[in-house]
C-alpha cells in the first residue's frame, strides 16, 4: 500500500532539487557556477582572462609542464649563442695569425732582417775642408756645389778686416761637395768656406766596429756591402785600411774606423749614404 505525500510537501521537494537533476539543463563547466555567483545581478559576466582560461581548460599539469620549461629553454639559447659566436671568432683569428695552409701568406722578410757585422757611410777617397785663415766678409763664390774643379781653381774671395783680399783655391782636382756660406757672410778665422772631394773612387767607412770585431779583420779581407738607397743590391768590396787608435762615438762607445773599397760604382751613390757590411771570414 503506497504512501502518498501531501501536495505542499511535493512542491517543496521539487524546489530544493538541484538544477542538474532537471533533464532539460546541461551541466555547468568547471568554475562557471563560481563566476556566476560573483557577478552582480543584472550585469553580464566579464570574459575570463588569458590566465584564467588557460587554468580552467588546461588543468593543473598545463602550467607546470609546458610553461616554465619553455621559458628556461629560451634563456639558455640567449646565453649560449653569444658564447658560440665569440669562440668561432677566436678560432678564425688564431687560424689567420698562424698563416697555415689556406690562410693569409706570411709577409716576406725585410732585407734589413739579414744580419750584418757593421754599419757605415759612403765617403770619397779624398775629401778636404777649405777654410779662411784671416776671416772677413765673403765677396765672391765662383763655384757652386756639384761643380768639377781642377787643382788651384778659385773657390772664394774673402775681404779681411784690414781690407786685404784672401783667395781660396781647390787643393786638388775633384768636385765641390758643399758650400755652407753665401756672398756677404762674415767669417771668423778658421771658418769653413767649401768642401772638395775626389769622387773617382768611393769607399765605406765603418762607424760601429768595436774591439771584439776589429781583432778578426785583416787588410784585403772581402766584404759584402748593402747600400740602403740601392735596395737589395749587394756590392763587393775589400778592407783597405784599419785604424789602430779607437775613436769615441757620440754615444760614448769606442769604435775603430775601417775603410772598405766600394766596387761596382753606381751613379746613384752619393757621399754620406748609409751602408751595411758583412765581412767574409778568411781561414788562417
pLDDT < 50 stretches: 17-66, 100-104, 109-113
The CATH topology of the largest domain: OB fold (Dihydrolipoamide Acetyltransferase, E2P)
Q: Secondary-structure element order, as H and E?
A: HHHHHEEEEEEEEHEEEEEE
CATH class of the largest domain: Mainly Beta
Share of helix among residues?
A: 10-25%
Class derived from helix and strand content: alpha+beta
Characterize the main sheet: 6 strands, antiparallel, barrel
Our Rg estimate from Cα atoms comes to: 53 Å
Explained architecture:
The chain is elongated and about 100 Å long. Mean pLDDT is about 75; it is low at about 15-65, about 100-105 and about 110-115. With about 280 residues, the protein is an alpha+beta fold. The longest helix is centred in the N-terminal third of the chain and has 32 residues, at about 65-100. A hairpin with a 6-residue loop joins strand 9 and strand 10 (about 235-240). It starts with 6 loop residues before the first helix and ends in a 5-residue tail after the last strand. The protein is about 25% helix and about 30% strand. It has a 6-stranded antiparallel beta barrel with strand order 1-8-13-10-9-14. A 4-stranded antiparallel beta sheet has the order 5-4-2-7, with no helix packed on it. It is built from 6 helices and 14 strands. It folds into 2 domains: about 45-85; about 120-280, OB fold (Dihydrolipoamide Acetyltransferase, E2P) (Beta Barrel), CATH 2.40.50.
Give the arrangement of secondary structure elements.
Elements: H1 7-16, H2 32-38, H3 50-58, H4 60-65, H5 67-98, E1 118-131, E2 136-140, E3 148-149, E4 154-159, E5 165-169, E6 174-178, E7 186-187, E8 192-206, H6 211-214, E9 222-227, E10 234-242, E11 247-248, E12 254-255, E13 258-261, E14 274-279
Antiparallel strand pairs: 1-8, 1-14, 2-4, 2-7, 3-6, 4-5, 6-8, 8-13, 9-10, 9-14, 10-13, 11-12
Amino acid at each position: 500500500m503506497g504512501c502518498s505525500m501531501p501536495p505542499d510537501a511535493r512542491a517543496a521537494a521539487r524546489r530544493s532539487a538541484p538544477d542538474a537533476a532537471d533533464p532539460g539543463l546541461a551541466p555547468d563547466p568547471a568554475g562557471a557556477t563560481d563566476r556566476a555567483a560573483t557577478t552582480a545581478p543584472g550585469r553580464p559576466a566579464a570574459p575570463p582572462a588569458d590566465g584564467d582560461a588557460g587554468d580552467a581548460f588546461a588543468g593543473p599539469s598545463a602550467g607546470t609542464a609546458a610553461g616554465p620549461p619553455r621559458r628556461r629553454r629560451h634563456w639558455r639559447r640567449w646565453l649560449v649563442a653569444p658564447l658560440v659566436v665569440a669562440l668561432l671568432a677566436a678560432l678564425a683569428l688564431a687560424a689567420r695569425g698562424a698563416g697555415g695552409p689556406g690562410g693569409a701568406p706570411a709577409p716576406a722578410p725585410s732585407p734589413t732582417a739579414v744580419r750584418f757585422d757593421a754599419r757605415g757611410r759612403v765617403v770619397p777617397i779624398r775629401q778636404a775642408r777649405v777654410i779662411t785663415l784671416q776671416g772677413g766678409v765673403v765677396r765672391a763664390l765662383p763655384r757652386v756645389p756639384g761643380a768639377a774643379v781642377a787643382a788651384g781653381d778659385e773657390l772664394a774671395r774673402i775681404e779681411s778686416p784690414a781690407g786685404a783680399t784672401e783667395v781660396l783655391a781647390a787643393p786638388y782636382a775633384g768636385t765641390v761637395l758643399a758650400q755652407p756660406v753665401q756672398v756677404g757672410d762674415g767669417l771668423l778665422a778658421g771658418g769653413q768656406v767649401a768642401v772638395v772631394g775626389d769622387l773617382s773612387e768611393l769607399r765605406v767607412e765603418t762607424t760601429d766596429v768595436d774591439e771584439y770585431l776589429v781583432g778578426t779583420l785583416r787588410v784585403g779581407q772581402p766584404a759584402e756591402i748593402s747600400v740602403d738607397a740601392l735596395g737589395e743590391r749587394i756590392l763587393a768590396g775589400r778592407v783597405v785600411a784599419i785604424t789602430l787608435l779607437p775613436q769615441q762615438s757620440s754615444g760614448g762607445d769606442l769604435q775603430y774606423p775601417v775603410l772598405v773599397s766600394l766596387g761596382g760604382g753606381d751613379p746613384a751613390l752619393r757621399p754620406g749614404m748609409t751602408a751595411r757590411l758583412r765581412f767574409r771570414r778568411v781561414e788562417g
